[in-house]
Write a structure and sequence with these properties.
20 strands; five-stranded antiparallel beta sheet; elongated; single chain; 36% helix
């Protein structure tokens, strides 16, 4: 009689045996084919793959003046599998002038996968970065006593001048997020953090190389593997030529010392940014090497926010500089003609609403309204536009048309400059006011936007771009701070014209008004210059002292420079904006300042504005 129980046991035992064999086969396949752990272990015994870092591209100004370059430095790397249990820690710490606690902390951080996700005990890991030549020389003499530790030649950035920190940016160690985003990086690598160093990181960084070194059974380096046949040479980063004029930038930073604000200058014919000043600023030479972290913390805690690039991140009421946009809109839409007269008896009076204005002749036409910076004229223009029911069936339609003009002039959205962190400002639309006033509003409700107040906010870059657009009589190029990338054509985003909705006739009238302002109006301080400047002042209302604003360009018929000056709590536009703008235009157009202008520049450099805690 057949024993079925015995047969069943045989099948069970056979099945278990087969399962074990299959598991072993899968495991062997995983270890030998799918996993590279053993390969890494074997390779690490025979080879040392040494990364060779490329030199980062240098940065010059538009005239070839060197602004950023490289200096040699050294990183100390460690292969944990080689250093384990074989190191005289006391001598090592003494050589690098560090405590035992600091040594242990650094080693623990290397092995902490939350801080170092790419950790492997078989590959080089960063232990200490950016040693100077002197410190490295001391370490190099004893390096043979420290198994598992190697030197990696690197470079650190050096900044030639204490200027243009917000444009240039800086370089620091990669974060875990940087490594996760781009597999080019590994822990200990450097990356651009701010400014063009960040925006043009991929062009500046170059391509890493690798040197394969052969080791003996004791781990000692025997030389290059097969005479370097499989080595890869690093490819240097590409050099950048900025559009910035270093001398103009230096003058702008001098003029804003002790003040909060911004200066932006643009070449209208190209969109190239000639100067970008944000004050207060900082010396970019402080943000270098091992001291960068400490300096960054110090600057970030400064209540005056020197790390903030106010030129592209400050969002301000443009004040009366915005009246030019209203003139362009009213004329192009047929709301007024340049010859249209409006009254202004110390302001705009309508249905119990009053918007004040300074004394001047009345009534006046469009050109004279810009020349004298009349509030009343532009309030009347907006009032008639928002109330024109034959042209716009509803006030919302008029508002939408008005906003379309503003957007076409470069407002309400980012312009797209080649710097990180640009803000968009604010141009309200019909939905904004429908929500704010529950659908019940009219031209009088929003009258303050006609003079650059109320809900309208622009960046200094947008105000300067307005000057460039008027100088070009109706178009602009996207502003950019890099003029040339070595071996690459300029991005077409920076070479394409952007036309506004306003017509040429409206621009001619505005230019005439701005020239009149420079000769006899609110910008008459510019009348002394022989290069035909055109300008428009702004006095932006503020909870504290008013902001001083200027927007202009020169020469009138062959413009070389457009500029915006914004000085927080500086008072009237003519107090700070106009004189600073005039000095900047003179420096760029003539290449230098006259003796009298040099004295004026010294005076403004040493002027200080007292700021309260609420006016930062």
């Amino acid at each position: 009689m057949k024993d079925y129980e015995l047969d069943n046991r045989r099948f069970v035992i056979g099945g278990v045996a087969m399962a074990i064999v299959v598991i072993y086969i899968i495991r062997l396949f995983t270890l030998q084919i799918m996993s590279d752990d053993y390969k890494k272990n074997a390779d690490s015994n025979a080879f040392l793959k040494k990364i060779e870092y490329p030199s980062r591209g240098v940065i010059t100004d538009r005239n070839g003046q060197l602004m950023v370059y490289n200096q040699p430095a050294y990183d100390i790397m460690v292969v944990m599998n080689e250093a384990k249990g074989r190191l005289d820690t006391a001598e090592f710490c003494a050589t690098l002038n560090m405590t035992r606690e600091e040594f242990e902390r650094r080693m623990d951080n290397i092995k902490d996968r939350s801080k170092n996700p790419g950790y492997s005990r078989f590959t080089e890991q960063l232990f200490l970065s950016q040693l100077s030549d002197k410190d490295f020389g001391i370490f190099q003499e004893k390096m043979f006593r420290f198994p598992g530790f190697y030197a990696q030649k690197r470079s650190i950035r050096q900044y030639e001048y204490p200027y243009a920190a917000h444009v240039l940016g800086d370089v620091g160690e990669v974060s875990p997020a940087d490594i996760e985003e781009d597999d080019y990086y590994q822990p200990g690598d450097y990356i651009g953090k701010l400014g063009v160093e960040r925006y043009y990181e991929k062009q500046l960084r170059g391509v890493k190389g690798v040197q394969i070194l052969l080791r003996d059974a004791h781990g000692r380096i025997q030389g290059s593997y097969q005479n370097g046949r499989f080595d890869q040479r690093p490819v240097p980063g590409k050099n950048l030529t900025l559009s910035i004029d270093a001398k103009l930038q230096a003058l702008g930073e001098r003029l804003l010392e002790g003040k909060i604000g911004s200066i932006v200058a643009i070449e209208p014919s190209t969109g190239e940014v000639l100067a970008m000043v944000s004050s207060p600023s900082y010396d970019p030479r402080l943000m270098v090497g091992r001291q960068r972290g400490k300096e960054h913390v110090r600057l970030s805690r400064n209540p005056w926010r020197p790390l903030l690039n106010r030129s592209i991140q400050g969002q301000y009421p443009p004040g009366s500089t915005f009246k030019t946009t209203q003139a362009l809109t009213y004329v192009s839409e047929g709301i007024i003609q340049p010859s249209t007269l409006f009254p202004c008896h110390h302001g705009f009076y309508c249905k119990g609403l009053h918007v004040g204005c300074h004394g001047h002749a009345s009534p006046l036409n469009l050109t004279e309204a810009i020349t004298t910076s009349c509030n009343g004229y532009f309030c009347w223009g907006l009032y008639y536009m928002m109330g024109n029911r034959r042209k716009y069936p509803h006030v919302q339609d008029a508002m939408t048309r008005w906003r379309d003009y503003m957007v076409s002039m470069g407002f309400g959205y980012k312009l797209g400059i080649d710097l990180p962190g640009e803000k968009r400002g604010l141009i309200p639309n019909a939905a904004f006011y429908d929500k704010a006033y529950h659908g019940s509003w009219n031209g009088l409700t929003i009258i303050s936007i006609s003079i650059g107040q109320g809900e309208v906010n622009l960046t200094p870059l947008q105000i300067a771009n307005l000057g460039a657009t008027i100088a070009n009589r109706g178009y602009y190029y996207t502003p950019h701070v890099v003029r040339k990338v070595q071996g690459e054509p300029l991005d077409t985003a920076f070479t394409r014209r952007h036309y506004t909705m306003a017509n040429r006739r409206s621009y001619d009238a505005v230019v005439a008004g701005m020239r009149g302002s420079a000769l006899r109006g609110t910008c008459k301080m510019l009348a002394k210059y022989n290069f035909e400047p055109c300008g428009k002042t702004g006095t932006a209302q503020n909870r504290g002292h008013d902001h001083s604003v200027f927007m202009g360009f020169a020469p009138m018929n062959n413009p070389k420079i457009a500029i915006a000056v914004y000085v927080e709590n500086g008072g009237w536009g003519a107090d700070y904006g106009v004189p600073i703008g005039g000095l900047m235009m003179e420096q760029y157009i003539n290449g230098k300042l006259t003796e009298s202008s040099m004295r004026m520049a010294d005076e403004f450099q040493h002027r200080r504005i007292a700021y309260g805690s609420g006016n930062r």
